[in-house]
Design goal:
The protein has 185 residues and is mainly α. It has one domain. The protein is 74% helix and 0% strand. It has 8 helices and no strands.
Length: 185
């Protein structure tokens, strides 16, 4: 009985995600991006909910971790020959490295996770309002670093030439995996 109820609790959000993805498969290619974005947002919201629900601390830091990972995936997936035109001041290892879709996602998860570990350890010694304000400060600092530091990105230039590789199936699988991981936690 207990296993059946737990399975139903997991199955309900998974079925909602699959239903949204199925609906997204029947719309035009132009409108499909909205469904892909929604599924990515589901992954983000579920990840934030796991932390906020367990700690009671409203965390803006999670968006920073997400941003650092996405930034890493974006920089690493831009073709090497296009980087000098849009990002001439990149660190050498970033300017000479291009990886595919799945490796860039794995690297993004690792980079975001390492950043979360480094920032989270001292921040989680705080509690209540102080922790929330500190995570907001992390968000501001991260935003400024990603936006203005030309050694890791385009600086004030447009972040262009990132190939669109995430499709509806990949976004659905990602959302289902995040939901399952949150449920297992």
């Amino acid at each position: 009985m207990r296993v059946g109820r737990a399975l139903a609790e997991l199955l309900a959000p998974v079925l909602l995600v699959v239903a949204a993805a199925t609906l997204g498969a029947f719309v035009s290619q132009t409108n499909q991006i909205y469904f892909i974005t929604a599924l990515i947002s589901v992954s983000t919201v579920v990840a934030i909910y796991v932390f906020v629900g367990n700690s009671g601390v409203l965390s803006f830091g999670h968006i920073s971790f997400f941003a650092v990972g996405v930034w890493a995936a974006g920089v690493l997936s831009i073709p090497e020959q296009e980087k000098p035109a849009t990002m001439p001041y990149l660190f050498d290892f970033l300017s000479s490295t291009t990886v595919g879709n799945v490796p860039s996602l794995l690297i993004a998860a690792a980079v975001g996770g390492v950043f979360a570990l480094l920032v989270g350890l001292p921040l989680m010694r705080l509690s209540g309002l102080a922790a929330g304000i500190a995570t907001f400060a992390v968000l501001g600092i991260t935003n400024n670093l990603l936006r203005y530091y030309e050694k890791i990105g385009p600086g004030l230039n447009t972040f262009s030439s990132v190939p669109e590789t995430t499709d509806l199936l990949q976004a659905t699988i990602g959302a289902v995996l995040v939901i399952a991981a949150a449920f297992a936690y």
